[in-house]
């Protein structure tokens, strides 16, 4: 099934070996995109590539052209290493010719410990991956997008205006933040701080990059599951010693869902559909916003 919003677009996805990233690769590949899949963990990155290829072998491989295996490539990349990021971006442009969209999604949740016990070294690690790393990727990809935009403008009408069929801001970046950055989460002080910084980064860079034809938005999910991440986080919250959580993981899960106005978990696909909206031209007049995907949790509605 091809989708004109993504057909032949090159999308860079960081954290592609993880839960959201892997499903995102499959979702956008199915819609005809070309994917540069980045992760520091080569094993999980290879699993993503293998899983995606198997999925296509099983179903619509023969109906999608060009074949999906030629439209996804994995790149080992540590987002905290700026020279590594820069050389990966050069490789992506060499392999795919251009970059249209970025899902800036790699992240690390850090320790689950109350503030009084939190290790400052881990706080710094969380900030380095979730904030500095996200910025390094955003800047490196935006430089490439900005160069493409300048070249396209130079090739437009003589007076420099783009033709009416061409969007003013064809390039799009989505940063993965979290509801934790909006309202804080007990025992996750570093993670919450980092995601609040991602929201500020999104707003500031959206202003800086608008003159370069680039939109920047954030997505803030919460209570996504079921699955390993959901179960593991409840176990860690239960073991954290925080008075805000029961000491039994099942009770933690029940209390969390009870606090959501919609009284259920969100699915990974619901997250990705929201990312797709922000990445695509469907949101062509939206920049610097934060799309919250949390069943109403942070809305101020009483559960
Ligand atoms: N799962 C949720 O419920 C949830 C909710 C809100 C926000 N988020 C955010 O969504 C994003 C994806 O989460 P997920 O659930 O897929 O987590 P995940 O742990 O499954 O995936 C994160 C990926 O990021 C990669 N990564 C970590 N450090 C890196 C580095 N230095 N360089 C490159 N890659 C690195 C990891 O190897 C991993 O594959 C994260 O930013 C996370 O904070 C997740």
UniProtKB/TrEMBL annotation:
Database matches in Gene3D superfamilies: NAD(P)-binding Rossmann-like Domain
Pfam families for the chain: adh_short, adh_short_C2
Keyword Oxidoreductase: yes
Stretch forming the signal peptide: none
Molecular functions per Gene Ontology: oxidoreductase activity
InterPro entries xrefs: NAD(P)-bd_dom_sf, SDR_fam
Record's keyword terms, sorted: Oxidoreductase
Assigned protein family: Belongs to the short-chain dehydrogenases/reductases (SDR) family.
This protein's name: Uncharacterized protein
Organism whose genome encodes this protein: Cyclotella cryptica
């Amino acid at each position: 099934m091809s989708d004109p919003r993504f057909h032949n677009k090159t999308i860079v996805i960081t954290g592609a070996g993880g839960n959201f990233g892997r499903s995102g690769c499959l979702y956008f590949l199915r819609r005809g995109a070309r994917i540069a899949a980045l992760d520091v963990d080569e094993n999980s990155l290879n699993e993503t590539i293998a899983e995606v290829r198997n999925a296509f072998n099983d179903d619509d491989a023969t109906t999608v052209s060009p074949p999906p295996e030629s439209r996804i490539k994995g790149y080992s990349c540590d987002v905290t290493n700026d020279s590594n990021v820069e050389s990966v971006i050069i490789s992506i442009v060499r392999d795919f010719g251009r970059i249209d969209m970025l899902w800036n999604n790699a992240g690390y949740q850090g320790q689950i410990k109350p503030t009084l016990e939190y290790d400052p070294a881990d706080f710094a690690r969380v900030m380095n991956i979730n904030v500095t790393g996200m910025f390094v990727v955003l800047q490196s990809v935006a430089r490439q997008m900005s160069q493409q935009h300048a070249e396209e403008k130079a090739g437009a009408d003589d007076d420099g205006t783009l033709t009416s069929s061409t969007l003013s801001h064809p390039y799009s970046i989505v940063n993965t933040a979290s509801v934790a950055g909006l309202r804080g989460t007990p025992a996750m002080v570093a993670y919450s701080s980092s995601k609040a910084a991602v929201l500020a980064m999104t707003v500031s860079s959206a202003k800086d990059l608008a003159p370069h034809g680039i939109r920047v938005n954030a997505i803030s999910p919460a209570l996504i599951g079921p699955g390993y991440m959901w179960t593991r986080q409840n176990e860690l919250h239960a073991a954290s010693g925080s008075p805000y959580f029961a000491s039994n993981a099942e009770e933690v899960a029940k209390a969390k869902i009870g606090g959501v106005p919609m009284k259920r978990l969100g699915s990974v696909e619901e997250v990705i559909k929201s990312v797709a909206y922000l990445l695509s031209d469907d949101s062509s007049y939206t920049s610097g916003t934060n799309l919250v995907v949390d069943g109403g949790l942070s809305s101020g509605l009483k559960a």
